[in-house]
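Please, structure for the following, as C-alpha cells.
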Amino acid sequence: MKLILNFWRKLTTPSKAAVGIVLAMGFLGGIIFWGAFNMGMEATNTEEFCSACHAPIVKELRETIHYSNRSGVRAICSDCHVPHNWTDKIVRKVQASNEIVAFLMGTISTQEKFEARRKHLAVREWQRMKENDSQECRNCHNFEYMDFSEQGPRSRKQHSTALASGEKTCVDCHKGIAHQLPDMSDVPGW
C-alpha cells in the first residue's frame, strides 16, 4: 500500500524534467502522427490506389487526352475527383469511405455491377462538381488565360457567355471528358 501511495504522490507532483519529457513526447508524437496522416492522404491520391477498386475507370482515363497528349501534361484520378485545398480534401476522403464500403459489399465489384450503377455514380459526381463550380477543372484550366481565338466558334461563344457569366460551369458541357458516358437519354440538358 505504501508503494502505491508513493507512486501516486510522485504522479501528482511531477518534476520539471517529467513535464518537459511529457511535452517533448507529445510534440514528437504529434509530428509522427501528422507525418503518417499526410503520407496516408498522399497514398490514397495515387493512380495505383484508385485502380485497386476502379480498374475499368482508370483504363478509360488512359485512353483520353487528359492522360496522353501532345503537351505531356497528365491528369490522374485525384486531380479531378479530390479537391486540392486541405479542408475540402478531408471532406471528400470521408465521403469516399462510403465508396470503399460499397466496393467491399460487392455493389460495384464486377464490370456488370459497375455498369448498372454507372449512371447513378456519374450523376452524383457531376452534381458534386457543379456545386463546387468545377473547381477541380479550374485547378488546371484557368478561364482568364483561355485564348478564345484558338477555340472553335461554339466553344468561343459558350466560354465567353455562359461560362464567363457564371450561368454554367465546366461540367455542364464537358461530361464524359475522361470517362465513357452512361445512357444519357434522361439526363436534363443533354
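The radius of gyration is 25 Å. DSSP finds nine helices and no strands in the chain.
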